[in-house]
Design goal:
The protein is of the alpha/beta class. It is 26% helix and 23% strand. It has a single domain, classed as Spore Coat Polysaccharide Biosynthesis Protein SpsA, Chain A. The chain has 6 helices and 11 strands. It has a 7-stranded mixed β-sheet, sandwiched between helices. It has a two-stranded antiparallel ribbon with strand order 2-3. The chain has a two-stranded antiparallel ribbon with strand order 8-9. 37% of the residues are buried. The structure holds cytidine-5'-triphosphate and magnesium ion (MG). Belongs to the IspD/TarI cytidylyltransferase family. IspD subfamily.
Length: 229
């Protein structure tokens, strides 16, 4: 089976509030996106890496992607939301994908993905008919807020997991899941798959696989890269 990494990288990084989109900010001397691409480049089980950037992207071409040439495809078909960017990328690769091929959707903004976590995801799901995601058990106590931003209840955190990426699904199932209306409830691929009635599997990942969202996350990513597990 083919295994394709699909990297949505068409966001503007509004919460990061930096001059350039966060996927291009320097991290340990290289743009964030290069680290993310590298994780899939060096993994022998990944056949191709498809990066989805914005049609208005002015940064991608500023960097040298030679190191990834044997696997990398860049598509300028990013959409208004992450889900749209993923759907557009999926549609573009559909002609060369069998329904049973794997698509691993991974945030460009998660540059610290460890090879061991990627391997565990691939191995755990290898025979699964649908797929699943990397996730970590929730560490904090959870509160549900009411109208006045007061606690309505404490939500038991047993059995609660925080979704990460990669989110790995069979191409046929994922295309179907993302073919309908993409409302705000579709915050990740798994939620779209769940709407079809499937139960994606949770594969234990690591807190090191953080998403860079706010400036402090970039500092933490620097530390993680400087201190390999
Ligand atoms: N993404 C995308 N297309 C969009 C929005 C997001 O491809 N229209 C990508 C981002 O580039 C990122 C990933 O989806 O790699 C996760 O999204 P997020 O962390 O929310 O990034 P941004 O949307 O760029 O940031 P923000 O929400 O703070 O604006
Ligand atoms: Mg966003």
């Amino acid at each position: 089976e083919q295994r394709i990494a699909l990297l949505p990288a068409a966001g503007s990084g509004s919460r990061m509030a930096s001059a350039i989109p966060k996927q291009y900010l320097p991290l340990a001397g290289q743009p964030v996106l290069r680290h993310t691409v590298q994780a899939f480049m060096i993994h022998p089980a990944i056949d191709r890496i498809v990066v989805v950037i914005s049609p208005e992207d002015e940064w991608f071409d500023e960097y040298d992607w030679q190191f990834a040439q044997s696997k990398l495809t860049v598509l300028r078909c990013g959409g208004a939301s992450r889900a749209e960017s993923v759907r557009n990328g999926l549609q573009a690769i559909a002609p060369v994908m069998a329904d049973s091929s794997w698509v691993l959707v991974h945030d460009a903004a998660r540059p610290c993905l460890a090879q061991a976590d990627l391997s565990r995801l691939l191995q755990t799901l290898a025979d699964d008919p649908v797929g699943g995601i990397l996730a970590v058990p929730v560490a904090d106590t959870l509160k549900r807020a009411g109208e006045g931003q007061q606690v309505v209840e404490t939500v038991p955190r047993d059995g609660m997991w925080q979704a990460q990426t990669p989110q790995m699904f069979r191409h046929g199932v994922l295309s179907k899941a993302l073919s309908g209306e993409l409302d705000a409830g579709v915050t990740d691929e798994a939620s779209a798959i769940e709407r079809l009635g499937y139960a994606p599997r949770l594969v234990a990942g690591s807190a090191r696989n953080l998403k860079i969202t706010f400036p402090a996350d970039l500092a933490l990513a620097e530390w993680i890269i400087a201190h390999p597990a």
